[in-house]
UniProtKB/TrEMBL annotation:
<dbReference type="GO" id="GO:0016491">
    <property type="term" value="F:oxidoreductase activity"/>
</dbReference>
<dbReference type="Pfam" id="PF00106">
    <property type="entry name" value="adh_short"/>
</dbReference>
<dbReference type="InterPro" id="IPR051935">
    <property type="entry name" value="HSDL2"/>
</dbReference>
<protein>
    <submittedName>
        <fullName>HSDL2 protein</fullName>
    </submittedName>
</protein>
<dbReference type="InterPro" id="IPR020904">
    <property type="entry name" value="Sc_DH/Rdtase_CS"/>
</dbReference>
<dbReference type="InterPro" id="IPR036291">
    <property type="entry name" value="NAD(P)-bd_dom_sf"/>
</dbReference>
<dbReference type="InterPro" id="IPR002347">
    <property type="entry name" value="SDR_fam"/>
</dbReference>
<keyword id="KW-0560">Oxidoreductase</keyword>
Length: 284
């Protein structure tokens, strides 16, 4: 059976490349995002990405979806299930970002990041889980980082929302044990080429192509076991664990490796009392 995927936040950047890579590997892809009209300031829509996929012989389904609207996320999931006959892989790549201190982050902007980053991911998971659990198979991926202290520096409001996604991954993983369904977080080791890096004129020596994240994403989708359930992976490190050693094809400036912005080792969050029950399962 031909596999299927939904990518939320797929109109440009990493999301676009994930959709293209999955389609190139034979997936039928639901291309979902808010952007439906192309503009000079914000190029790329669900339709341009879908056209790009179909022009390469792939199968794409453009789905308008504002992730701040739960009904639109529910529709994106149900549309894929209906049109494709099932959903094997759900990717949450939508994101809102503001790297500022608490005092410089207005509540309105914090609410936006909470809605788009944490709440939107939660809604997608709740929409996709019943179908995947019934089939006893499925993979869910959130674009979220490993949890470590340095990530909070100078951007605590944003970090709250992204780490919240990682907590969701690690907590839900416990609920998914032995179900055939798994959830994983993925984050890039370096800065990734995007519309923002282009607009801000960041030199290409500082970032990699989005293909590296997309390739890691595809490998996670195709993992036959549940060994990645609950893990927060780094794209480069995960690909190296699969035997990849040459990363030159991901360079934006040939011959130049961009600086790594993520630590090479992350702290374990496990404690000695990991399996000790502290709250009764039954309601009080």
């Amino acid at each position: 059976m031909v596999p299927s995927a939904l990518v939320l936040g797929a109109s440009r950047g990493i999301g676009r490349q994930i959709a293209l890579t999955l389609a190139g590997a034979g997936y039928r892809v639901g291309v979902a995002a808010k952007t439906v009209h192309d503009t000079p300031k914000l190029p790329g829509t669900i339709y341009t990405v879908s056209d790009e996929i179909t022009s390469r012989g792939g199968h794409a389904l453009p789905i308008p979806c504002n992730v701040r609207n739960p009904e639109e996320i529910d529709n994106a999931v149900s549309t894929c299930i209906q049109e494709f006959g099932g959903l094997d892989f759900a990717v949450y790549n939508a994101g809102a970002i503001l790297w500022e201190k608490v005092i410089d982050t207005p509540l309105k902007r914090f609410d936006l990041m909470m809605d788009v980053n944490v709440r939107g991911a939660y809604v997608m998971i709740q929409a996709a889980l019943p179908h995947m659990l019934e089939r006893k198979s499925g993979r869910i991926l959130l674009e979220a980082p490993p949890i470590y202290s340095r990530f909070f520096n100078g951007k605590a409001p944003y970090a709250v929302t992204k780490v919240g996604m990682t907590v969701l991954v690690q907590g839900l993983a416990r609920e998914l044990e032995n179900t055939g369904v798994s959830i994983t977080a993925l984050w890039p080791a370096t800065t990734i080429e995007s519309h923002v890096t282009t607009v801000k004129g960041v030199p290409p020596t500082f970032f990699r192509k989005a293909d590296i994240v997309a390739d890691a994403c595809l490998a996670i989708a195709q993992e036959p076991t549940e060994r990645l359930n609950g893990q927060a992976l780094i794209d480069e490190d995960y690909l190296r664990s699969l035997g990849v050693t040459d990363f030159s094809k991901y360079q934006c400036l040939p011959g130049t490796e961009p600086p790594r912005i993520m630590p090479r080792r992350f702290p374990s969050l496990r404690v000695e009392e990991e399996d000790q029950v502290t709250i009764p399962d039954s309601k009080l």
